[in-house]
Amino acid sequence: MPSTHTDKAFEADLRDLREKLLGMGAKVEAHIADSVRALTERDSALAEKVIQADKEVNRLEVEVDETCRRILALRQPAASDLRLITTALKIVTDLERIGDLAVNIAERAKDLNEAPPLKAYVDTPRLAELAQQQVKKALDAFVSSDPVKAEEVRKEDDHLDVLYLKIFNELLGYMMEDSRNIRRATALMFIAKHLERIGDHATNVAEMVIYMVRGTDIRHPRSRNLTTTS
After folding, report:
1. Is residue 160 within 8 Å of 134, Cβ to Cβ?
2. Cβ contact 27:99 at 8 Å
3. Secondary structure (3-state) at 121
């Protein structure tokens, strides 16, 4: 659990920051689910709703950035408080990019809804569900300052990679079978790739949580080893 600050005003600022990030996270989670539902239910109006709602995600990104800058300027945090603020600044960028990926999925869904379905959608909704869960778990780890939960997010990213590869290979088969499938199969490949990338952003968030709690940067371990041995 996050520590309680002795400065009540400072503590209120940090609580406000966490709540804003959680609110933004809840919106992008919903956008992931809606963008894929727009595909599976052939609901182009819902896809358009996701596209338009991205403005709100962008507004929240600016709001969180401003909150972080205000806390840095007024409170001059150090040690764990400073790591929390810098982590929040990175997390908000990942959340904004997840929102962009949901928009990309919605745009592909609108195009695909204009053509007959290529196949029954089974694995793509499952991939979307996994991606959504990863985002939620990573944000939960941030709010509770739980590095163990963050480690779970990192490990579970492999499940998304395996499912993405399965979808990719299946769609490749459709393309080889009939050239008339290429356009729709390619669009579905992009959607699967966007979902896999959402999982990567959730992993980024989890790694930042580990840095925030333990003060250890676990990103790019291979690069760090090279630096150490040089």
Report:
1. yes
2. yes
3. coil
